[in-house]
Amino acid sequence: MSDESSNPNTAEATFERPPIVEFIDVEKTFAAGTKKAFTAIRDVSFTIEDRPGVGEFIALVGPSGCGKSTVLNLIQGFRDVYPPTRGEVKVRGERVTGPGRDRGMIFQRYSSFPHLTVLDNVAFGLEIDPDERLPRAEREEIARRWIERVGLGGHEEKYPHQLSGGQQQRVAIARSLVVKPRIILMDEPFSALDEPTRIDMQRLTTELWHEIEATVMIITHSLSEAVYLGDRVWMMSKNPGRIARKFQDIIPPTHDADPIEVQASREFEAALREVSQAFREIEAA
Ligand code: ADP
Q1: 284 DSSP 8-state letter
Q2: pTM for the whole thing?
Q3: What one-character DSSP code corresponds to residue 153?
Q4: What are the angstrom distances between the C-alpha of 279 and each of 27, 187, 243?
Q5: How many structural domains does the chain have?
Q6: 36 CA closest ligand 1 atom index
Q7: Which residue among 28, 61, 69 is best mutated to probe the pocket of ligand 1, counting the most ligand atoms within 8 A of its Cβ?
Q8: Per-residue pLDDT for 133 more than 70?
Q9: Cβ of 113 less than 6 Å from ligand 1
Q10: Same structural domain, 156 and 197
Q11: CA 187, CA 82: separation in Å to the nearest integer?
């Protein structure tokens, strides 16, 4: 078989690396052992294979409060969520014990330093990278390349407050990609943007994602965004949060395709209908 990715069963057998992300029977109960104990997710198990040079884009959807951010935060290793109450969260075969440079996170609210220019914000990741130790001129050159790549050329000396919401999210994307993370975690990254800006950002995301070949997990409350950006769409149910449905085969390939064109196609509409129907069922359950 020349194309192992076309058959998930053989792909499974031929991978020798540990999965890039693995959840084994994960439960997270906040305030465990107190009267306020609340189980946000339970029995969450999944495996995302490591596909260097290919990557994968997984969209995570589900009703508000079903535990989507909890899943992402556990992968990131955020202290207020980590460790899980039960089970194991592994990244590249190692138990997650905190944030790492192999994982980049992009949030809905702009996560740049307000007191640094665009250039310094983007170069920051390289500055603190103990493995890189690049001279300043080289760091700045790499940062400038990413700033250009996200469409912010000419804005290098501006501060975040001098930029629009969409531009600030571009800074956040450049900041995160400059260190070439293997895993990119995006929590509702475009929710605060107006529709045209959001479509621009979707276009940029598919372009860049192809370039960096990372594994991306994105939370979105927009099902059309999930079907457009995702290679796979995972849907969670709540109380407690679990992965209830996984969609793969029906999701049309959208790499490098224009969001507006794709989203008007029959294949896309059919996929969106199916995902929306499942979402309604999960919400009503
Ligand atoms: P989603 O991202 O799907 O909206 P979250 O993962 O943010 O859901 O939250 C899942 C549930 O866990 C929610 O009911 C939320 O209130 C609760 N929760 C999240 N973080 C905490 C926390 N640090 N302490 C207590 N409860 C929390």
Answers
A1: H
A2: 0.89
A3: T
A4: 23, 19, 12
A5: 2
A6: 25
A7: 69
A8: yes
A9: no
A10: no
A11: 17
On the question of pLDDT at 1 being above 80, the answer is no
Q: Are 110 and 165 in contact (CB under 8 A)?
A: yes
Q: Which atom of ligand 1 is nearest to the CA of 187?
A: 2
* CA–CA separation, 128 and 38 (whole Å): 37
Domain boundary, last residue among 163, 180, 197: 180
209 and 176 in a common domain: no
Tokens 């989507």 correspond to what residue? Answer: 68
Q: Which of 148, 163, 180 is the last residue of a domain?
A: 180
| Nearest in space to 198 (alpha carbons), one of 242, 229, 177 | 229
**Nearest CA owner, ligand 1 atom 7:** 69
Position 192 pLDDT exceeds 70: yes
pLDDT above 70: residue 2:
no
Nearest alpha-carbon partner for 198 in 186, 181, 210, 211: 186
Contact 89, 118 (CB under 8 A): no
Mean pLDDT in residue range 80-104 = 93
Which residue among 27, 38, 242 is best mutated to probe the pocket of ligand 1, counting the most ligand atoms within 8 A of its Cβ? 38
Which residue pairs from 84-88 have beta carbons closer than 8 angstroms and sit at least 24 positions apart in sequence?
84/26, 84/27, 84/28, 85/27, 85/28, 85/29, 85/32, 85/39, 86/25, 86/26, 86/27, 87/23, 87/24, 87/25, 87/26, 87/27, 87/44, 87/45, 88/22, 88/23, 88/24, 88/25, 88/26
pLDDT in tens, 4-20: 444 444 444 455 789 99
> Cα–Cα distance between 61 and 44 in angstroms, integer?
14
Sign (positive or negative) of CA dihedral 243, 103, 197, 227? negative
Which residue's CA is minimally distant from atom 26 of ligand 1? 30
